[in-house]
Amino acid sequence: MTTARAGALLDRLGRVGQFLWSGWAGLAGLALFAALWQAGHERYGDFILPAPLATLAAGLTIAADPAAWELAGQTTLRAVEGFALAAAAGAAGGLAAGYSAATMRLARPILTVLLGVPPIAWIVLAMIWFGSTDGTIITTVLVAATPVVFVGVAEGAVTRDRGLDDMARAFGAGPLARLTTLGLRHVAAFLFPALTVALGSAFKVAVMAELLANTGGIGGALAAARANLDVAEALAWVLIAVAGLIAVEYTLVHPIRSEFERWRNAARPWGVKR
After folding, report:
1. Which of 74, 81, 158, 160 sits at 20 to 30 Å (Cα–Cα) from 92?
2. Has residue 104 been placed in a domain?
3. How do residues 157-179 score in pLDDT, each as one tens digit?
4. Where in the cell is it found (predicted)?
5. 201 with 144: CB under 8 angstroms?
């Protein structure tokens, strides 16, 4: 048992190391983005697009203020709460729709309504319903992110291999066993990309709702920077929001995906890496 546990621990550490090593490609992309940013600064000047180093300096100044960490934490917590609710509702609804044609037909017009109404309209309605509270931000994030997860999970469930389902049924596997061993494995390939998109939408909508509802957070700080015409500070707050998004994605979504898809790495031929 001890040897098995040690092997499992080493396997997890190896996957964590491989995941961290793959971050070099992301750093190269960020370097390219910074180069394009610098070119835009040299073309349009400080007022339109401050230099990356000036924005970084503004960000460090903001980070030195303990109150700024509280604002960033407020936005992150609101976005994650709305995202968690959207992930649960979208996954449950998408799974039901993928396995039931009647549920899919019932859900389509609801999805059309949710996707057709712009987020800013939901923000206005949420402000009327909940006022300038966390409920406004969380509700708006929930409405904006749920359809993304729903569509991804439903598509995964609909495209599952029904031949494998029939084979498992022939060997005596019940509905729950078939769902956990076959259905969810296939759905995961559609679920996690949808969760990544939904998480990005959650942060964008949360900041926008905070700005319009005047509920503090990064959105409130952006409103103050806009009033002061401080473009560098505004961009610094944008970078802080993106940093919060990346932190949540790479500490929550990707590790869970790595654990859930261990079988996919095991099924690859030797030497084939993602």
Report:
1. 74
2. yes
3. 888 767 777 777 777 777 677 77
4. Cell membrane
5. yes
